[in-house]
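Field: sequence (string)
Field: structure_tokens (string)

Example rows 1 and 2, in order.
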Amino acid sequence: MLCVLLVQIAAWNLGPFSRDGVINPVLGPNPASSFLCPMRKAPVHWEHDHAFNPAAITRNGHIYVLFRAEDNSGSGIGGHTSRIGLAESTDGLHFVKRKAPVLYPANDAGKQYEWTGGCEDPRVVQAPNGEYVMTYTAWNRKLARLSVATSSDLVHWKKHGPAFLHTKFLDTWSKSGSIVTRVDRGRVVAAKIGGKFWMYWGEGTLNVATSTNLVDWSPQTDSDGKLLGTLTTRHGKFDSALVESGPPALLGSHGIVLIYNGKNDGKSGDSSLPDGTYAAGQALFDAHNPAHLIGRTDTYFIKPEAAQEKTGQYKAGTVFTEGLALLKGKWFLYFGEADSFVGVAIAR
């Protein structure tokens, strides 16, 4: 099924993305998967109920997807424990999963931030030195904190704690970290602008943060010390209820392109979409001043259409973008489907 709006494609847009010829979902839960959980001190079916909200990156000619998996320890949105699994594909469409999660709440330094909600919603980039950097949400069922982990192989991860650990924003609700990247000889790597790495983050309004090492981040503030908002909601649009970062942003010839997720408000939003629907748009930021918004798409470029995108755990309908990988001249955009599955759309 083709799911693009050709009328809105501008010179700076990524895409158009199509789901034609793709059999979605490409990933889903597996009730049989089990591993010995260091938090529960017992075997758990870590991807029993849902597998969704994926990060993606290319390594050695393969696409790797890091996905959020929910066990069967609870019910309702946010009522399970989440862990992050890893799947590998040679074509971006057919995947083989690892049997155990690669990032999960354990008896480690992340305990106070991750028990018992877990590790959620990853995004992943490659550092210029080849190391992989994951941003994810640490959820202790009280406060969501954007956190960072690093790896040399995508399997073994070192947790570094909250991204804003050394700032006054440590106890501010934070999630969805989209680090600015660039294409370098076929690799998508983190990009420095003005001597710093940049990241869009937030849920509701998007903010911006900078770092010198991709681990320790400093949110940018205005003259009053308040968070510097860079992207906000719009009345009458698909993003009327909230905006939230999508995959890592991409620095190109026109500026920085950020695919972002928008939630529709049934009363003040897009009347063609049900209340609460998540769809995705694109925004363009200044290549020299990443906090400066230049433009954004007038409407979504992808929305819930397939059955599993409307009838999963989040029945209002969800296409939630989080992963963008480059393989053999094509962009593979991975997204969560109704908080239950993983889908993909491709731009040639």
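Row 2 begins here:
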Amino acid sequence: MPHFDDLLIVAAVAFAAPFVLGLFPRLALPSVVLEILAGIVIGPSVLGIVHVDEAIEVIALIGLAFVLFLAGLEIEFPKLRGQVLRLTATGFALSFGIALVVALGLKAGGLIETPMLVAIILCATSLGVLIPVLKDAGEISTTFGQLIIAAASIADFGAIILLTIFFSGEGGIGSTLVLLGGLALLAIAVYVAVRGAEHSMRIRSDLLRLQDTTAQIRVRAAIVLFVGFSAVAEKLGLEVILGAFIAGSIISLLDRDEVMTHPDFRRKLEAMGFGFFIPVFFVTSGVRYDLDALTAQTSNLVMLPIFLAALLVVRGVPALLYRRVIDTRHTAIAGLMQATSLPFIVAATAIGQDLGLVDAAESAALIGAGLLSVLIFPLLGLTLLRRSPVTQEQQRPLRPIAPIEET
């Protein structure tokens, strides 16, 4: 029978991390960083007062899926088209190309074992970290903000798809692509079915009547999608995080009509995720963090700044494409911002360790680099933003259908 002793400590740490940060509002530090660091302290690497038992294992797994579920929910699909889509999609393709070159170099240097996996890990951007940063800076609707959000959305989606294609499924890339196609068709069918059902006056009336009662019917429907697509993805031999991400994306597409959408719907889903499951996942990631493996040899510690520099190069260099629509200073800031990555690194390294493709030291160095990226890049970007004047053109949102002017 599962025990609650260790879970109590993890839950207390999950509460304490943002609470303590709230007491020092000038300390611009995402709570996820403190959650992981606190997890390291209470875990076997330092104090050893918490070990991952069955109860924590299950909740952390749900938390991992919830991270990607809410990431899919945050994607604004109407903005992912035209000029924005072309710039950011080209940037991601360039990013992946650079990542492959960097990963092959790291392999040649004897630092990593699986270049393709590391290249995919380096391609991701932390959408969940950047959105609150851009909102607080008042940049979320500017050209600059739109580019970063679109780039992070495509990077999240692209990294998950690449991870699934190359490191999921038992029949090779071809069969995995077929399974992905089947999952995509299922997603389209569910989307069409729900859109059709929402046009029924009877169903709409029932949703309105039950959405704020103890039934919380909209939240339950979202959880059915979340669990359903996660289960289908797992059954097909694909990554659970892909199914969760698709479920969030479907809800993002459905949740656009102001007449049909309850204003507190997303807040309730975020309350479930960020209130319990997601912080437990991050604290647990810290508990599992193998600090001894990282510090066992000097060569292991050297990997940390190398991976951090690799993140900056892989995600920062493609931002040069944005010079077509924003100035040089904002292009540099965008490069810093989209080099921020952590949740996907934690998830992908865990998958890599399960598959025997990433050792403990490599995983610890990658996660450590992710922690530093969240600590350094957004803060540095915000500092540069405050010192940078924004022109009227940059304040004006990009038109999704505007063509790119040839230079």
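free_text_note (row 2): The longest helix spans residues 82-108.
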